[in-house]
Fold this sequence. Notes:
The structure is a homodimer. In chain A, 29% of the residues lie in helices and 29% in strands. By secondary structure, the first copy, chain A, is an alpha/beta fold. In chain A, the strands form 4 sheets. In chain A, strands 3, 7, 8, 9, 10, 19 and 20 form a 7-stranded mixed β-sheet that branches. In chain A, strand 1 and strand 2 form a beta hairpin. In chain A, helix 5 (162-176) crosses helix 6, helix 5 (162-176) packs across helix 10 (318-339) and helix 8 (235-246) packs across helix 9 (260-273). Chain A is globular. Strand 17 (297-303) of chain A pairs antiparallel with strand 17 of chain B, so a sheet runs across the interface.
Amino acid sequence: MxxxxxxxxxxxxxxxxxxxxxxxxxxxxxxxxVPEPADNEVLVRLQAAPINPSDLGLLFxxxxxxxxxxxxxxxxxxxxxxxxxxxxxxxxxxxxxSMPVGNEGAGRVVRAGASPAAQALLGKTVAVIGGAAYAxxxxxxxxxxxxxxxxxxxxxxxxxxxxxxxALGMVETMKREGHHALVHTAAASNLGRMLHRICAKDGIAxxxxxxKPEQVELLRSLGATHVxxxxxxxxxxxxxxxxxxxxxxxxxxxxxxxxxxxQILSCMESALxxxxxxxxxxxxxxxxxxxxxxxxxxxxxxxxxDFGMAWGMGGWLLFPFLQKIGPEGVAxxxxxxxxxxxxxxxxxxAREISLAEMLQPDVIAAYASRSTGQKFLIDxxxxxxALPGL
Amino acid sequence: MxxxxxxxxxxxxxxxxxxxxxxxxxxxxxxxxVPEPADNEVLVRLQAAPINPSDLGLLFxxxxxxxxxxxxxxxxxxxxxxxxxxxxxxxxxxxxxSMPVGNEGAGRVVRAGASPAAQALLGKTVAVIGGAAYAxxxxxxxxxxxxxxxxxxxxxxxxxxxxxxxALGMVETMKREGHHALVHTAAASNLGRMLHRICAKDGIAxxxxxxKPEQVELLRSLGATHVxxxxxxxxxxxxxxxxxxxxxxxxxxxxxxxxxxxQILSCMESALxxxxxxxxxxxxxxxxxxxxxxxxxxxxxxxxxDFGMAWGMGGWLLFPFLQKIGPEGVAxxxxxxxxxxxxxxxxxxAREISLAEMLQPDVIAAYASRSTGQKFLIDxxxxxxALPGL
Lengths: 390, 390
């Protein structure tokens, strides 16, 4: 069912997610007009786009995937699922709006706006950020592009933004907030391994927290020094040892729910008290910070404060961080990503799928499991469904 | 049992709290040398010292007050109680150290060091901060004194620091962190009523959260506009209404444990979403902050994040805040306290007790209950136990 495809088409496919006010999720491929790039924009024919954990939230919302049903809309596949009533409150803001999905991707610039910066990218392979990447075409402002180094493919550059800038953002946040070492959870993920490589290269001590013994092995095989397994019975004392050894007082936690954030603060406090500061009933005066940047653990966040008063917990998100550091700060980070794309910032993919395969229930079951080592890459140019007029 | 008392004594009484390594709390009155003031210090004969909630933590630690037993050490009373084994970890830093208690108080300067600033205070009535205020004498650096206005008694000035500077510190933190209105819990407390008076005077919108219907009445009788009762069935919608009306995006929570902090963030998010920002799966981009400054609720802190990614929770403590704003900032706040001591910063006391009465089980039961309207004042010069050599 592949289709001969040229850039002269005026209509192309885009993946869309819709949650209706009565609690029905529909994901579909929709023919949409190929956009005309504005002066400072380029039109990118996408060739590779990763499925990041952060994409799944928009793609499926609060839908219960056990109710998923495959359907079709003519030649194009669709899926539907129910959103539980209790979850509809949190979906109210998007109800009835058909939304494009896909934070990032990479492809070839096939048209460019009039500006010199846009024209300079014509014919080049670029990574892009800004949403709607699960599509055949995307018009993107030049600032949201990263020119890939000579010889790098779209596949090499597909994950140039979200994971690399998140990992660099964590290190930058650590420095700006006056900490000297850091903690990361879900540390065996693509992002976690990238953060390990950055810290190893930059000489920053990193405490890796994982959830399974085999992930300890994986990280050790990559050269990680401090790896703590939260499923082990001696997790808390081992974590305290690692925190005492590194002096880490800031953590980035992908699990979000459950007790882990509080446990990290508590162990940081124990590690600090080993230094023998004089007793204060308010605890150590050293500020301890945990940023929750994901929600892998769906339980409520819970802690019993035994870590004094000098602590903070909060959300951390890439885009507000990038706004905070401003265009010059962002440009520096992007340049580093381009310079080290095939080393520090290399991503692994378990499987490459087409846009149509994204809507197959068995494929969804695999990529929605968010398992370590199960990162999927979409090739929007692959196996296109036959579409009248395309 | 009162004793004739002059300032020529070299020994005087001080209240001490000790937790032994084997889990026994002992609170006692100890004869200690009357300190000689250093160059920049004054010696204050204390005449009034409040029992603040923040004093109880040091006074009783994690002891189980249901195991409290009265005793004596010669003429001087003592009490003892057990610290549960599970709580001893958090007491490790103070185990075996006899600690003086009492954050603040007021009294007359009876001796002064050589510095002009110290000499200027000789014979004056001052409020003092810095610990060890449950004592007959205390030597204090001049910076930790506040000269009370003409005509103000030690009783009037006993609570010049902790509550006034905490309430002013909350308003100052609100401004420095870019918020325009604030939320306060346990709002019927002395501190809460003080904050209400500050906000009313300064034209700042304040959302008061209380736990009982009669506290709603109390605050309304004082002129409060927004008062929400967390025991009411419509607490969350009413809180959301008040947050929407005021635009408050920062809260100071004295309860610390339980769901309240998360509920406030959640209602802030709902209030923000009424403004009709475009949908983002990351929630509103407006930062929402809850500072936990007390621990009236002993349950674990728990929340289910339905308030997006732009949020923070953390400890808030007066002394680090004062350090952050520096000596000039502190001097400004202190001046305001002195100027409005009998109006904005007036405190009410339910009962006045002696140092010896502090160690009577029935009195402890009353002041340790932390009930609204049950603030106690200690007069260290009252009913002194007969002490050989004093």
